[in-house]
Amino acid sequence: MKKNRHAALMAALICPLLLAGCADTLEPPGNVTQTYWTPLFLVGSRFVDVVIEDGALFVAERTQGVYVQRPAFTGSWRHLGLRVDDLDDPLRHYGLTSLAVDGDLMVAGLNLPPGDPRPELLHRRLSDPEWVPSQLQPVSLVRDLVKTAPGNIIGLDDLATFSSEDGEKWTSSANQLQGLELGHLFEGNDGLYCAGHGPQREPKLFKSEDGGSNWKQVNLSKTLGVAVGTIYAMAEASGPDPARYLTVDADVYRSLDGGKTFEYLIELPRTPGHIHVNPENSQEIIITGGPVFWTRNGGEFWDVFYLPRGLPSRFSAVDWEQRMMVVTVHDNIREAVYVFNMVAAEPLLRPAP
Predict the structure, then answer these.
(1) In the sheet that 181-188 helps form, which strands lie side by side, from edge to edge?
(2) If pLDDT is split at 50, 70 and 90, which confidence band does 322 have?
(3) Average pLDDT estimate for 186-202
(4) Per-residue pLDDT averaged across 171-183, rounded?
(5) Is the pLDDT confidence value at 28 over 60?
(6) Within the chain, how many helices (H) and strands (E) appear?
(7) Taking the alpha carbons of 3, 9, 14, 15 in that order, is the dihedral positive or negative?
(8) Would the pTM count as exceeding 0.90?
(9) How far is 60 from 82, CA to CA, in rounded Å?
(10) Element (H, E) at 12
């Protein structure tokens, strides 16, 4: 049963102690003196993906293309091409949409205006001189690309999913995602998930147990109990009985029984971007999208870290081994890339009551 959201928010605002299910702020908005935020000196009009792979940081910007920093967090930026800044696009609708990285293999999806002859699905290895069009070209917008395992990248367009080992040859699935709109791909412990909403803005979730070749819809009407909303983010913890977390609009839910039932955890101040679960400690979770929400007890107790100038975050990636997180932030004019030093921020975390 969902808790009273307004009561939870009021409690977080007025109570000096942190209550279960509430969140409190460790730094006020606008504070620019935090020692745990560091800019990476890369700006753009809109970043569309952030990936950490094999000690390297990859960032995709809508019209400027793909950048890599090796080693991550300390090295200099190298531009890898895919610049499409010649588009007549005042609404910022076209350009790169997603990026997946598997070792030194990169796969990028683009959304180009009708009649533009350039390919919309390309691949490249770091040692290659340029990007190469893939044999399979999507028939609609490439919404998402993810690495699900070494040697396997899954893509999603408006009609179906497609998979590849090398970024060149792709296998397309039949359209089994009926009624799914605004879909995103998420890797689970027991399969691959595709989530978003349906034509009536009802939450929709599909599952594939064979790497994306076949999909079945997951019935959420009884397990989640939410009639209207979009699933924007989802993640699972590791272990024999992993917890599953997902967000419907700005609300966060948790399942402790493999998705059979969900319980409401907290309402975020804005639509979340990503959920990150520590693979070595399933109780530690970070949610981005506005401020950074951080819990170390499975979501019962949250701390909040505002970004510099109180700006909201968008895309993010976590290196749990180095305890560093990369986020992109935006102010409606331009976007920038920042690093969140989790080691420097940990002393500010309060112990759970």
Answers:
(1) 181-188, 191-197, 203-208, 216-217
(2) very high
(3) 90
(4) 80
(5) no
(6) 2, 29
(7) positive
(8) no
(9) 9
(10) helix 5-14
Examine the pLDDT at 193 and tell me if it is beyond 70: yes
Contact criterion met (CB below 8 Å) for 255 and 241: no
> Could you tell me whether strands 216-217 and 231-236 are parallel, antiparallel, or unpaired per DSSP bridges?
unpaired
CA separation for the pair 152, 131 (Å, rounded): 19
Q: What b-and-e string marks burial along 29-44, b requiring 16 or more CB atoms within 10 Å of the CB?
A: eeeeebebbbebebeb
- 233-246: buried (b, 16+ CB within 10 Å) or exposed (e) per residue? bbbbbeeeebbbbb
**Beta pairing, strands 23-25 & 302-305:** parallel
Specify the pLDDT at position 53: 96
Sheet holding 144-149, edge to edge: 144-149, 152-156, 161-164, 170-172
Cα torsion through 71, 77, 79, 85, rounded to 10: 140
Distance CA 53, CA 49 (A): 13
pLDDT of residue 157 exceeding 70, the answer is: yes
pLDDT for 30? 43
Pairing of strands 285-288, 274-277: antiparallel
Contacts of 313 (CB under 8 A, 6+ apart): 273, 288, 289, 290, 291, 292, 307, 327, 328, 329
Q: Which two tokens stand for residue 14?
A: 């007025």
What is the rounded (10 degree) CA torsion for 246, 251, 22, 299? 0
Look at residue 98 and give its three-state secondary structure: strand
Residue 291 CB partners (closer than 8 Å, separation 6+): 25, 269, 304, 305, 306, 307, 312, 313
In angstroms, the Cα distances linking 328 to 19, 25, 206 are 30, 20, 28
